[in-house]
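Handout, page 2. Input:
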Amino acid sequence: DKVPILKGFNMIMFTISQLILLNASFWKPKTINPTLRKFMLRLGNFNEKKVKILSDGVKTGKFVKCCPSLHSDESCSIYNIKNFATSFKNASMIYLAVHFLPILLFEPRKVFSNPNKYFKQSLRNTIISCLFVSSYNFMVNGNICFWRNMLKKDYWFSGIFCALFASLTLLIENVKRRSELTLYCIPRSLEIIFRLFTKQKYPKIYNFLRSKYLRVFSFQICIAIWLTIRTIPKGKEISNGLNMTLMKLIFGTKN
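Output:
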């Protein structure tokens, strides 16, 4: 009756997905969804110019100081503190909608029955999510500055340190949202891996990964997982309320 829990598994999978996403956005930009990449750069207060400076530094071995190539502040610490505040502001525009709107739209009774609880809980979740994103970006940018200034050179493995340290910020997020973020990042990472198998080099694998049979099978697995979560003890309580509400609307309460 009890589904086994692997301690740390969620963190491991999130870290792996970040290793793929961050390094792909840097080294293999064509493998990552353009919209997702733009979103990641904008949220992290990064741009294509900075990416080119870092990639050129790795390829040529030529080192340029962080100021003014990557930022205008003479101190990297000051820059990263400012960037933390900017990231928090950018994230708040997104997470205000993420945490306030779903309950209001899909569970209005809860809102009107206890508006103070709804407001406090939504505001708290918004602040926590913004802290997660801004801390994540702080770790990425901070590690970029730290390693290149310490080694006086740009190395490819700096991206690995960025992903490893940035992944730890997942612990800031609400426990219920950690698995959601991981479940969002894993498919994006798989897309990148799939795109590495090009039609020219790997025609058979390319066709298999894009076959309708694999898509249907993947969809069946996803639905099976969600329905299993609904039936296990406390499955609904530990899952996202919006997802469970949508499942209830689609499959009803008796299934």
